[in-house]
Amino acid sequence: GYPRPKFKNIKQIIQYFLIITYRYIHPFFYAEKDWLKWSFNRYQLLLKDKSLFQNSLNHFGNPPYLKKGKFKWNLRHLRYLIIKDSFEKTIDKDLTSQIKSVLDLGGCYGGYISLLAKDNPNRSYILVDLGENIPLAAYYLSQNHPLMKIKILNNENDKFVPELNSFTLIPAHLFKLIKDEKVDLLCNFVSLAEMSRLHFEEYVNSNIYKNSKILHLVNRFVSSPIFSRGSNPHTWLKSTQNLTNYKLENRQNKFFD
Description:
By secondary structure, the chain is α/β, with parallel strands linked by helices. It has 8 helices and 10 strands. The strands form 3 sheets. The protein has a 6-stranded parallel beta sheet with strand order 5-6-4-3-7-8, covered by helices on one side. Helix 2 packs parallel to helix 3 and helix 3 (75-90) packs across helix 5 (111-119). 23% of the residues are buried.
């Protein structure tokens, strides 16, 4: 499950085999192994569409992975498959067929929108994340979807132009370039629950969030990042996001879990 070494680099090969050997001595290895086994079994129970087992994790970016038969996976890949499967089984098919624009807020390297684009490339996909993740997303998406256009907004004077069959990648500090746009589907998985209240408010008060036709959120009912809490527990609520802060009161809500 560790990244494969380059076989021309003797030092990497030695380090790789030392890691593989030492992990059997470490007590956390066995706890981690049980956790991974439990996660995969949960995936098997949740997954209604068994054809998704064909969506094996690929080698782009040389990720760590595990194997079950011919199926390659890691925990992030499993999470994306479960989220996609749950969404497609819950939302009406006529409604999903009308989706032409998707924003993945906090989309990391593009793993989730890559799965969506595999089935529906003829959409305008937007990814917003920290600046250091944008080159990773550009590489990953270009390798997985060589026929789709990759656009990067990296300047305050850049203009967002929606375009089908494309990915637009935007660093978080330039979110303002699209804050008043409209999208059919806006996704966020966990990251709204991990950011400061200041940045949380910036996103949930934006027009692109409020006016999106569908919000697909996977977040805790009550959460806040540890770095924003301070040492006084009485001040925690000032930096805590809860379900009522996501501005869902005027929407038809469906809960997955």
